[in-house]
Amino acid sequence: MLEQLLANLEIAPLMGIPLNEKNTMRMDFSPSNRKLLEVDLSNTALFDSYVFGLLNSSQKQYGIGGYFEHRAIYQRSKVFATAVEDFRDIHLGVDIWTKAGHPVYTPIDGVVHSFQDNVGFGNYGPTIILKHKLGGKLLYSLYGHLQRADLENLVVGRLFKKGDLLCHLGEFPENGDWPAHLHFQLMWDMMGNVGDFPGVCSHREQEKYRQICPNPHAIIGY
User: Fold this and answer.
1) For residues 62 and 30, what is the distance between their CA atoms, to the nearest angstrom?
2) Is the peptide bond before 173 cis (omega within 30 degrees of 0)?
3) DSSP alpha helices (H): ranges in the chain?
4) Contact residues for 203 (Cβ-Cβ < 8 A; gap 6+)
5) Which residues lie across from 63 on neighbouring strands?
């Protein structure tokens, strides 16, 4: 459905330039990546060194991945802790890893639905959510792990046109204490949330959230 609604729209690159195999590498944070066992993920500086070591060694500017990926990195934070059988480790968006301060642009016209600083180790940090009208449907896009300065003077209802500068990637710890990256997620339904939305779910809830959160690669284009 999303692809059909986007078919006649020109989409601006999220990071200002198109992502492709020349500038972007796929990143794996699933349990199948045994290298993660060698990294102290609770130490953000070490986690950061791991992420940017991969980018530097591959000579890529961006790392990308994560849509409905079973993640092995959420043990680092109590933000995701629920009952063992419902531990939230299925990632609902796409992460784009690159240097702090990198600008992020509005891919399609939208207005500010809500925003807030979701503080706490492992949380989103500064977050912006836009609302888009696509035909007769509403689509919401979430941008997490930003700079706090991006929330200053922002107001609900503000219009951002396609290609407008929206925000910048924050650095740790203000970005929720993660290596610098953008969490980009799409939602058909905000489920009553304001300034926040689950970025991960439990295995039990996968199908529910798969209906709510369409694949962001339809907008990212890679």
Assistant:
1) 18
2) yes
3) 2-6, 44-58, 206-212, 217-220
4) 70, 89, 90
5) 25, 97
Give the Å distances, CA to CA, from 56 to 49, 136, 165: 10, 44, 26
Q: Tokens at residue 8, please? A: 């006649």
CATH fold for domain 2-220: Glucose Permease (Domain IIA) (2.70.70)
Neighbours of 86 (CB within 10 A): 12
Residue 35: name the closest of 54, 60, 63 by CA: 54
Q: Parse the chain into domains and list their residue ranges.
A: 2-220
User: pLDDT digits over 155-179, tens only?
Assistant: 999 999 999 999 999 999 999 999 9
123 torsion bin: left (phi>0), alpha (psi -120 to 50), beta (else) = beta
Amino acid at 147: Q
Rounded mean pLDDT, 63-90: 70
| 3-class secondary structure, 74 | helix
Q: Mind listing the pLDDT tens digit for each residue in 145-157?
A: 999 999 999 999 9
**Beta strand 94-97 pairing with 62-65:** antiparallel
Question: Quick check: helix, strand or coil at residue 219?
Answer: helix
The conformational region for residue 191 under phi > 0 = left, psi -120 to 50 = alpha, else beta, is left
The CA distance from 90 to 113, in Å, is 25
